[in-house]
Amino acid sequence: MAQTPRQRRANEKFAKNETAKQGKRQAATTSQKQNAKSPLSTGWVVLLAFIICGGLAFELLRIVPEIWSFFVAIFNRLTG
């Protein structure tokens, strides 16, 4: 038996009330992607990396000749 227009409206109203009781569907909210953006810009990240790694590089350049001369002195003592 086919629905009458009155039954159809009543069914639509009932369905609308039931969905309102259930709240929003989670599938609709998860379908949107949010772009995760870094709080630091690329320029600041490069600058911080240069400060950290550059300081390490300058410190190694200062220490390596001292270490090299230490090993040469030990080698000269052993051989000479």
Automatic annotation (TrEMBL):
The chain crosses the membrane at residues 43-61. It is a single-pass membrane protein. GO terms for cellular component: endoplasmic reticulum membrane. Residues 9-21 have a biased composition (Basic and acidic residues). Keywords: Endoplasmic reticulum, Membrane, Transmembrane, Transmembrane helix. It is found in: Membrane; Endoplasmic reticulum membrane. It comes from the Eukaryota. Coiled coil: none annotated. Its main location: membrane. Residues 1-38 are annotated as: Disordered. InterPro entries: ER_stress-assoc. It holds the Pfam family RAMP4. Residues 27-38 have a biased composition (Polar residues). Belongs to the RAMP4 family. Interacts with target proteins during translocation into the lumen of the endoplasmic reticulum. Protects unfolded target proteins against degradation and facilitate correct glycosylation. This is Stress-associated endoplasmic reticulum protein. The lineage of its organism: Eukaryota, Fungi, Dikarya, Ascomycota, Pezizomycotina.
